[in-house]
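USER:
Class, as today's exercise, take the chain set out below, and explain how the chain folds.
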Amino acid sequence: MDYVNLPTIAALSDCVSIINMGDCKAVRVIHHNAQALISLHGAHLLSFQPTGQADLIWMSEDAIFDNKAAIRGGVPVCWPWFGRIAAPAHGFARTSEWTLAQHRENDRGVIIELTLQDSEPSRAIWPHKFFARLLIEIADTITLTLEVENTDSNPWTFSGALHTYLNVGDITQTTVTGMGPTYQDSLQQGKVCTGNEELMLTDTIDRVYTAPVSPIVLFDPVLDRHIEVRNQGDNSAVLWNPWQQGAKAMADMHDTGYQTMLCIESTLHAASLEQGKQLVPGEKHQLVTHLSIK
């Protein structure tokens, strides 16, 4: 994604500026250790490129930046639910306008903090009070921390995911380890299955791995790198690639887009909203994903 030379709307510091991505405002980070781009629409990480490396994050070349639709690729924030257990699918956080609360930088990197809280439109969808913040720590590695707090007077339950799309050279040559042996196969109505310790894709995958280890490691021989994914605050790791048939069915993904991406998601999975994680008033929970190249 070529965003470095796009016109600056506002320069916030030597490393941080605001630019337009279509109709979306985005935070651009240019630091000597890495570059990154985050849309305020959805608090959506669009790019993370350590110096000297190809982007770790995959973005669809047909992604829609209309400040309304969910953005295809990057790291969508799925909250206060994950999946189609309620409407809209994957919750409303990924299509809400977040606020840039603060940014800090030093010789190692840049920290961006985005926030979202309940509003009349959000309570019409999900009738609870909350405060959410996404902390994005950008250096030669990246850490995304979604912290949610119950600011209501009653308990509520939730699920969610940091729905990371990883950029790979060729999905048919990519292998993954550390996802664990047991998964629920969404292509077989959630059937519980057991798989191999190493995964290499030959077709569509949509799996909820229920006992992942840390790190999950993606080996990409084409780009000559191992990507380590370390998750916290999760109960599962979702792996997804729509393959050719799925890509063709999406207006915002090129027919060949599936060839260079794989989602490895830090997920709090639940079969329904009622079965999600409960937070009592004043309680917080953090969902984390950390990406690094080894």
User: Anything to note?
Assistant: The longest strand covers residues 284-293. Helices lie at 120-125, 243-248.
